User: Which sequence fits this backbone?
């Protein structure tokens, strides 16, 4: 696990050269990738969402495609389509941009739900079906989608089924004064707009790290802690529809990834607390009156984390209170 910790730290250091002041959020995104999932970056325009996705692809050394979602985008523009070859008199499949290692679905909420749904099969089953024929996607395959808040004109709310396919939903927020000054200074120093990062690893190395994450242990009391948190969302007074068992699975997967990123081969409650808000916040439907009072899914989870009893993992001989 020490090697995973070193590599993850190197990847975050490399991405931080381009994306300033959000190291904690970048660690969450990397945890989602190590857990084998997809991440939704939802925030205001101009806060580095697209830059972060491109930077992760460069630092991880994996294939990258960007797909700009627009109101007139068709499902075939995502998955690819069959085109008649007049020379050989056969139909040939022309792969779409989804056939890559990391797909940047830029401004995914600016296209209608019909096109958004074209991603569902790929995100869940790592395959694409076009005209009855199924093609497998090469591993690793991850979607990093960006979205602007739904109250902005010209956007479509993501279907709940698609939101549920994202392992995490992460927001960067506005940088503080010093970080914003650093952004300007770095732009002056490099003397051009585009920034290219050297890779820290390659696709084979990423797959090896993901395989190692699968060996991280989660003891029963931690599993019970995760399930208790998820179950509490279903009876909370501000929640209309609570998180599904897929939410508990998302917490467990991301908590294991976070443990590996810190050089541990076992999960502690702090790992669960760190990932629970971004793993569950988008999987709940709040009551209408809750939205009027400014409540958010992440806020509800933070409230539950303060009330759900933490398991007594101090009894574990492997527990590291410093981690």
Assistant:
């Amino acid at each position: 696990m020490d090697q995973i910790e070193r590599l993850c730290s190197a990847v975050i250091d490399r991405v931080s050269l381009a994306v300033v002041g959000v190291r904690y959020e970048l660690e969450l995104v990397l945890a989602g990738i190590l857990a084998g999932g997809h991440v939704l970056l939802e925030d205001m325009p101009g806060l580095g969402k697209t830059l972060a996705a491109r930077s992760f692809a460069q630092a991880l050394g994996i294939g990258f495609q960007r797909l700009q979602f627009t109101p007139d985008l068709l499902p075939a523009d995502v998955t690819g389509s069959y085109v008649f070859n007049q020379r050989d008199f056969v139909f040939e499949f022309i792969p779409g941009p989804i056939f890559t290692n990391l797909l940047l679905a830029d401004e995914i909420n600016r296209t209608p739900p019909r096109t958004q749904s074209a991603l569902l099969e790929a995100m869940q089953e790592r395959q694409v079906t076009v005209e009855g024929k199924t093609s497998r996607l090469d591993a690793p395959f991850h979607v990093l989608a960006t979205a602007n808040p739904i109250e902005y004109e010209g956007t479509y709310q993501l279907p709940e089924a698609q939101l549920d396919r994202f392992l995490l939903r992460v927001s960067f927020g506005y940088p503080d004064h010093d970080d914003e000054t650093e952004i300007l200074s770095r732009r002056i120093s490099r003397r051009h707009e585009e920034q290219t990062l050297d890779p820290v690893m390659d696709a084979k190395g990423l797959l090896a790290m993901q395989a190692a994450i699968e060996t991280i242990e989660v003891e029963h009391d931690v599993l019970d802690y995760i399930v208790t948190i998820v179950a509490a969302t279903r009876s909370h007074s501000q929640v209309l529809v609570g998180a599904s068992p897929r939410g508990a699975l998302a917490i467990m997967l991301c908590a294991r990834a976070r443990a590996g990123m810190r050089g541990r081969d076992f999960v502690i409650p702090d790992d669960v607390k760190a990932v629970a808000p971004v793993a569950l916040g988008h999987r709940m439907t709040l009551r209408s009156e809750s939205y009027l009072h400014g409540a958010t899914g992440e806020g509800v989870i933070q409230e539950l984390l303060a009330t759900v009893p933490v398991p007594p993992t101090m009894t574990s001989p492997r527990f590291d209170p410093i981690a």
Q: What stands out?
A: The two ends are 13 Å apart (CA to CA).
